[in-house]
Amino acid sequence: MTVEQRDSRWNFRVKAHSDALVREAATLLGTSKTAFVEESAVTRARSVIAEYQPVVLSSEEFSRFVDALDDAPVAVPELVDLFAQQSQIPPG
């Protein structure tokens, strides 16, 4: 495993309760606060970027997609059984 060179620095202030929360989470995972914050920020950044990236399909892919939408729905036995069960969540 290679160790990637860290060549950028993040320097910012946070609220004391945020710092305590992040420090506790990092400790529970057995990692450093820096590694925890970086991993969390990168994961969130990838999620946000993915939300805003358009889905690009070729004409053939688009046709297959539209055809799939027109296909009759298929019952998934496990889901049919699950939805037939009484909810275990008490009414509000």
Question: What this model shows, in words?
Answer:
With 92 residues, the protein is mostly helical. It has one domain (16-84). It has helices spanning 16-29, 33-52, 59-70, 77-84.
How much helical structure, as a percent, in the residues? 55-70%
The averaged pLDDT comes out at: 93
> Which structural class do the helices and strands define?
mainly alpha
**Based on DSSP secondary structure assignment, what is the total number of beta strands?**
0
Backbone shape: flat
Total of domains = 1
The unreliable regions are none
Spell out the helices and strands N to C.
Answer: HHHH
Radius of gyration, in Å, reads: 23 Å
Secondary structure tally, helices: 4
Largest sheet: none
Strand content: under 5%
Distance between the termini: 51 Å
Structural key phrases:
92 residues, 59% helix, 4 helices, flat, mainly alpha
SSE diagram, text form:
Layout: H1 16-29, H2 33-52, H3 59-70, H4 77-84
Helix pairs in contact: 1-2
